[in-house]
Amino acid sequence: MALIALTSVPTAMAAVPAAPQPPQAVGRIDVAYELRFWFVPFGHTEYHAIFDKGVYQATSHFSTSGFVSVFWQAQINAGVSGRLAQSTLAPFIYDSFARRSTDKIQQVKLSFHQYGPPTLLANPPYNTKRYPVSVQEQEKGIDPMSAIGAILTGLSTTPQQPCGTVVRVFDGRRRYNIAFTYLRDEEQVPHAPLQTDVVHICALHYRQIAGYKPNLLRGKNRWPSIYARVIDIVAPSAPLGRYVVPVELWADTDWGRVSAGLTGLSINGKRIVLR
After folding, report:
1. pTM of structure
2. Where in the sequence is the domain holding 132, given as residue range(s)?
3. Statement: residue 159 has pLDDT above 70
4. Between 233 and 19, the higher pLDDT residue
5. 1 assigned to some structural domain
6. Disulfide: which of 143, 159, 190, 211 matches 94 by Cβ 3.0-4.6 Å?
7. Is residue 137 in some structural domain?
8. What are phi and psi of 188, to 5 degrees?
9. 6 is a domain residue
10. What are the pLDDT digits (tens) for 62-84?
11. What share of the chain is helix, strand, coil (3-state, %, to 5)?
């Protein structure tokens, strides 16, 4: 309809410039979590993302700490850039650098294209023939960093599904889905930001589609059930006008409870007070 209206306007009027559009606000979110095994801290992770004029950039850092680092030292740094799509994030380039010890280093780069599967560069190279991922499945997934961004921006949420629905991920050697199930709402928990009154209780389900199988899935064990307490934060500069932020995630494993608790939250450089 808009195209028909434009082509029927007289030439003299078509030359009139359109009214200038207000600049789109730059949206930024920074989150930090402390990881615990039972009540013992063993690491922390941070995620920083900027959304500006239809594109996005994000970086993350993970490292072990405390007593656990005596036995297991790990650092993972990752970054991504891409564009905002209607119901997801469409990455351009994803990079990650993981160091699990002085002699165990893994670098991964995924270059995404408009058509066809992403180009993978891995050092050391992945054995993609042992656990193959079809071209069709590769094309369905976004990288892990973009997946986190899609969750935080609530791109797959609906009024009936405030936790979201499904995020499809391809990290270079595996294709998996993170599916969400909305369970119930609870009143504000003590450590939630002050500006929210309702917390969504959600279940997260890891569903292996193809490719390399994590050690937990190679035997008869199943991926443990994961739960989250999620809040909505109003933010006009966010892609959909709000952020969907987990304040706590936890899973009960055969060895005990593993959890991640929100320790820092900033929107556009303004720290959100936690209690």
Report:
1. 0.85
2. 24-254
3. yes
4. 233
5. no
6. 143
7. yes
8. -50, 130
9. no
10. 999 865 554 567 899 999 999 99
11. 10, 50, 35
